[in-house]
Design goal:
By secondary structure, this protein is of the alpha+beta class. The chain folds into 2 domains: about 60 residues; about 150 residues, Beta Barrel (Thrombin, subunit H), CATH 2.40.10.340. The protein is built from 2 helices and 12 strands. The longest helix has about 80 residues.
Length: about 300
């Protein structure tokens, strides 16, 4: 009974609902057609945009931020890959630069040895260093030339920069060279000449710091760091005129005490890779056939 009355009431109210909806539709059409006299925009659309604008802004910001964040991650990944590639290219370039520098240095050394071979009158034998003494200052080296190449005992070994040492042992295809820095080579001391004063002295190795020492130079001679020392040929090992090194320190002597002079060898003994063995044979001393009587006898 209740349901029937409700349906009846609905049928009775339906015309009023229809009239109300029709009026609402007319009002919306009126509002949609109405325009602002200044902007010529429809009122309803403006209101709708006004209500929806905050929601659209939030959606745009959130969506844009999310997309921007994702894009940023992609850019970072791409930049990391590019940086890795650039680092590999830099490493490769550094390797190529080092190789080119080493090849250039090797070429310069070989050119210097070839020039030495052309200019020297002692038929240099070009050799490579194949081993070094394990001591701190590498006082001996082994080269890849021996008796089969013409290397003989006591032959001088040089570089374009200056003297290196002398041959102290030979084999069929290798030889051992004692460097001028070896303190044990007392019998191989160099008779050197100071280029500025022409003063002579004995040059021998110290065996401790890569320097050589020059002794027996009069304390009256003027000697300063930077002076150069050359060979005289009087030691019967090295031909005259070869560079020995440069003075780096002088312990001043007196009228009765000689200088103590420290010299840095002009050849880079710590970085030898190629050397030249000079086939130099010093002039042999001739035996005397005359002498003053009693000259060798001691005083009574």
């Amino acid at each position: 009974m209740v349901t029937r009355r409700t349906e009846k009431e609905l049928r009775q109210a339906a015309p009023w609902w229809f009239v109300g909806l029709l009026l609402l539709n007319l009002a919306l059409m009126f509002l949609d057609a109405a325009r602002n006299p200044n902007t010529k925009q429809q009122f309803l659309r403006v209101w709708g945009q006004t209500v929806a604008s905050p929601f659209e802004t939030i959606t745009s910001v959130v969506g844009g931020s999310g997309f921007g964040f994702i894009q940023h991650l992609k850019n970072l990944k791409g930049a990391e890959a590019e940086n890795q590639q650039l680092r590999q290219q830099v490493d490769q370039l550094q390797i190529e630069v080092r190789s080119a520098r080493a090849a250039k240095d090797e070429n310069e050394r070989l050119k210097g040895l070839l020039e030495l071979q052309k200019q020297s009158s002692y038929s240099p034998i070009i050799a490579s260093v194949i081993a070094r003494d394990p001591s701190l200052w590498f006082d001996t080296i082994t080269i890849n030339r021996g008796r089969s190449s013409g290397v003989d005992l006591n032959m001088p070994v040089v570089t374009p920069g200056g003297i290196v040492g002398r041959v102290v042992a030979t084999g069929p295809i290798t030889s051992q060279v004692m460097l001028i820095t070896d303190e044990k080579a007392a019998e191989g001391a160099v008779v050197g000449q100071l280029g500025e004063s022409n003063a002579l002295g004995s040059v021998k190795g110290l065996g401790t710091n890569g320097l050589v020492e020059m002794r027996y130079v009069s304390g009256l001679e003027k000697v300063e760091p930077g002076d150069y020392v050359i060979t005289t040929g009087q030691d019967a090992i090295y031909p005259p005129g070869l560079n020995v090194g440069t003075v780096v320190e002088v312990k001043q002597g007196t009228a009765s005490t000689p200088h103590t002079i420290y010299i840095k060898p002009s050849s880079r003994l710590e970085a030898l890779s190629q050397v030249a063995v000079l086939q130099y044979k010093p002039q042999q001393k001739s035996a005397t056939d005359q002498a003053l009587p009693n000259i060798t006898k001691g005083k009574k």
